[in-house]
Amino acid sequence: MTFPPPAPDAPLFVVINAASGQNDAEETIARIADILGEGGRHHEFLRVDTPSRIAEVAKDAVRHAVEQCGIVVAAGGDGTLNAVAQAVHGQGPAYAVLPQGTFNYFGRTHGISQDIELSTRALLRARMEPVQVGRVNGRLFLVNASLGLYPQLLEDRETAKRQLGRSRWVALFSGLRTLSNGGHQLTLDIEQAGQQRRVRTPTLFVGNNRLQLERIGIAEETALKSGRLVGIVVRPTSGLAMLGLALRGALGRLGDAGNVDSFTFKRLDVAPRRTKRIKVALDGEVLWMTVPLRFDIPEPLPLMLPVPEDRVEVE
Question: The sheet that has 71-76: what strands, in order across it?
């Protein structure tokens, strides 16, 4: 599907997550507003003061953008980018991001700076291009989706942060503790291109981000360019071996591990046995989904990308 590009002076409707830090949000809004004002660009901020309202606020932004031929902008971390993309996808407006996440894989892959001033200035000259996204049971993901051990790791990390404080050391300790337990083994019936198989694994990971897959050492990352997703399954293993896999991933050598299988696909049907619902992590946000799960590639997302001279180099 082709998308009509927005006008160079199209108004911007900025969805910004203010729930995680009032002072930081106010400062960020002020910096964005100054740059957009200097550029003579009409803009409006739609604040998310309660995390549960982000989908509602994003839909409001889409409605305004449709009415005024504008662009919907997501300013925040991975969860904010995902929720706003979900609201925008298939509705007509172009989508832009001012990424503020810890890893920022989506922004970095597309040359968008995490520095709010650089990304906002780049947005003033950005041009729309369709980019691939993934989907599972109707829900989009920009970077990755997973079930099993990784959603558990995310939940354990948030629990630890609430109990011990939000720091990198708390997150690291929690992650190591979850990995050392090995995780619950899933039995998955998988159908791909008419072929069926049953696998036992602590986790299924589906990637849609070249940079992330490249960093952990999965060679199939090149398949993303040909309109495919990348699946990764880990064979049943001990907690100690899981820690070893985490180290391999950190060193960019996960694909060399003998107990890791990776493959590419356009559509994947997954039926976990003995359960009707399962936790799935989408771009770092955990939610319950009804099984079976279908992973596929929907129509592309019309993303505002920086012109070549404004793109930042991947570090």
Answer: 43-48, 12-17, 71-76, 94-99, 301-305, 127-131
